[in-house]
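Weekly sync notes, structure subgroup
Attendees: PM, AL, DS (notes)

Item 1: joint prediction request from the bench team. They want all two components modeled as one assembly rather than separately. Inputs as received:
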Amino acid sequence: MITLENVGYSYGGGDLLSDVSVKLSPGSFHFLTGPSGSGKTTLLKLCYGALLPTRGRATLFNTDLRALDRDQMALMRRRIGVVHQDCRFLDHLPLADNIALPLTVSGHNLADEAGNLTELMQWVGLAGRFDALPPELSGGERQRAALARAVIMSPDVIIADEPTGNVDWEMSQRLLHLLIELNRMGRAVLIATHDLALIRAAKSQVQARVLRISNHKLQLAGADL
Amino acid sequence: MNAGRIRNLLLGDPQAARVVPPSGFTAHLTLFAAGAMAFLAVFALALSTASGRLADRWAEELARSATLRINAPADQRTEQTKAALAILQQTPGVASARALSMEEQAALLAPWFGADLPLESLPVPQLIEVIEDDTGYDAAGLRLRLSAEVPGAVLDDHGRWRRPLVDAANSLRRLALISVLLIGGATAAMITLAANAALAANQQVIEVLRLVGARDGYIAQAFVRRFTLRALIGAGVGVATGMIGVALLPEASDEGGFLTGLGFQGAGWLLPLVIPPLGALVAFAATLFAARRRLGELS
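Output from the run, pasted for the record:
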């Protein structure tokens, strides 16, 4: 579904990533680790087309990223659910509208989707927060809301950047459980994280590959994680 | 861009308007700019139409009349006047000619010398009003014949001083129209600035929308619709205020001269009603241009 072949990315004259190759297939589960500033977020952005590689080839759903115009790119993004580390929301809209935003921008009638939206909000434990504004939410609620927004369009791929960065262990387990559940439904999952405990917990429940960025290159991490 | 896309941009998904935060100084700036510019445009249009009317009237009235002046000694004046009238009646292109009475000549001089001017005691030449028909007469030929048969006659076809007046009125009309165009350009510039400010202020909103798969057209729609409607409302208020202002100007009168004729007449009152839709069109184009440029800069 998403393939990077010998991809490199340079910024300001220096290499951030070099010779990166990775393939996200249906039902695959990947963790991406590495020190801060190693290029994890950059790699995720290359995967969902927010950045174009300066070398190599990136394909989204069998289409070269460079061949996509802006409208085609928008359509591709509807097939990829992204959870940002900082959980960006539209602060003036109620939570339910924020979660339903992918449906809104793709022209779905929200009245028809009300049942699904309610079910999804219950699934992420936000059933009672329909009308809350994003600034009123706790860190954990924001992370769960971001995950709900990422999956509301039933995307083929879910990409999450430090989804448990601002939550306690219990909440991170809950979020992980949600992602594993989605993976079992056939979605490809890619999670960038520092949290080795989270990776260990996931590996006990799902077959996950752990990738590590080191010296601008992507390596398969050891099985002892 | 076809009509369907324009309709979608303005009327498409009402949800699109909600995704952009509603408040901000750009709303007030757009309303104010559109209103003020529409107000000024009404006055520029009024000036343009009034000066156009004036130019047409002067051109029309003065082009068809001429004056024959008989500068003869008092004892020959009547004789030469009769001879001149006889020549004029025979001249092709002259529809009518008549000698002005003493009272009419006194009325012409009254603004300078007062109403009780004893004209008969002054060496004032006899004036003959000449009205030409549609074909017009040969002024050079007529002058030649008059110089031979009526030595005291001087033909003034008004062209000498009519042309600069008509030119001045036409220049005024052109200046007023240029003002309308400049007002339109300034409105576009201000709305572009306001739209750019709104787009910059909502950069994060735009990034979130792009992230969840919004097309550029959808994002632009929210801004275009908002600025177009604001410009339409602002221009509507500006035009209404401007029209009231024009309506309150003094009625046209001979005493007041040109300055009292600065209004619209008849169907001319409909002309300012074009300004709000035009303002909205300018806002539509300016915002679309600004939105496309800004969105093109984002990944």
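Discussion: Residues 3-54+170-294 of chain B form one domain.
Action: AL to compare against the crosslinking data before next sync.
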